[in-house]
């Protein structure tokens, strides 16, 4: 499995709405995410930032998963809903440590 982390700043006035929409996700959005090759998606919120952890199948890089998701009506609607809440687009965080890889042969690029 490949792991990814994306981060974006959320406008302060949208904090509660952003958290609420993630506590009550749309079923069709969940299905689109899973069907795209995403095995796990966890969203954290800290000091005005949304931190999203993804675990994707080896044959499904996150960029490909996102491209597949964006073809669905649910994700298009989601993007329109979320976009005003963002200060900036999501950016990839650099992975600098992985316990399992360090116990094996050292850190490997995902």
Care to describe what's here?
The chain has 110 residues and is α+β, with helices and mostly antiparallel strands. The protein has one domain (2-103): Alpha-Beta Plaits. 37% of the residues lie in helices and 25% in strands. It has five helices and four strands. The protein has helices at residues 15-23, 27-35, 62-69, 73-82, 99-103; strands at residues 2-9, 38-46, 49-56, 91-92. The chain has a four-stranded antiparallel beta sheet. Strand 2 (38-46) and strand 3 form a beta hairpin. The longest helix has 10 residues, at 73-82. The radius of gyration is 15 Å and the shape is globular. The model has no long low-confidence stretch (mean pLDDT 92).
Outline the secondary-structure elements.
Elements lengths: L1 E8 L5 H9 L3 H9 L2 E9 L2 E8 L5 H8 L3 H10 L8 E2 L6 H5 L7
Antiparallel strand pairs: 1-3, 1-4, 2-3
Q: How far apart lie the N and C ends?
A: 9 Å
Write out the strand line-up for the largest beta sheet, numbering strands in chain order: 2-3-1-4
Strand-pairing-aware structural class: alpha+beta
Outline, from the CA principal axes? globular
Task: Write down how many β-strands occur, each being a DSSP E stretch of 2 or more residues.
Answer: 4
The biggest sheet, with number of strands, parallel, antiparallel or mixed sense and barrel status, is: 4 strands, antiparallel
Strand content: 15-25%
The H/E string reads EHHEEHHEH
Kindly state the percentage of residues in helix: 25-40%
Seen as an oligomer or otherwise, the chain set is single chain
Briefly note the CATH topology name. Answer: Alpha-Beta Plaits
By DSSP (H or I, 4+ residues per run), the number of helices equals 5
List low-confidence stretches: none
Number of domains: 1
- At the first level of CATH, what is the class? Alpha Beta
Query: What's the gyration radius in Å?
Result: 15 Å
Mean pLDDT: 92
Named at the architecture level, the CATH assignment is: 2-Layer Sandwich
């Amino acid at each position: 499995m490949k792991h990814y982390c994306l981060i974006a700043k959320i406008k302060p006035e949208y904090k509660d709405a952003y958290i609420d929409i993630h506590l009550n996700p749309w079923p069709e959005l969940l299905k689109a995410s899973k069907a795209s090759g995403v095995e796990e998606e966890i969203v954290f919120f800290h000091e005005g930032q949304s931190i999203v952890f993804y675990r994707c199948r080896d044959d499904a890089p996150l960029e490909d998963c996102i491209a597949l998701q964006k073809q669905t009506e649910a994700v298009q609607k989601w993007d329109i809903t979320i976009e005003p809440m963002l200060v900036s687009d999501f950016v990839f965080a650099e992975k600098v440590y992985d316990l399992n890889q360090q116990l094996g042969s050292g850190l490997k690029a995902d």
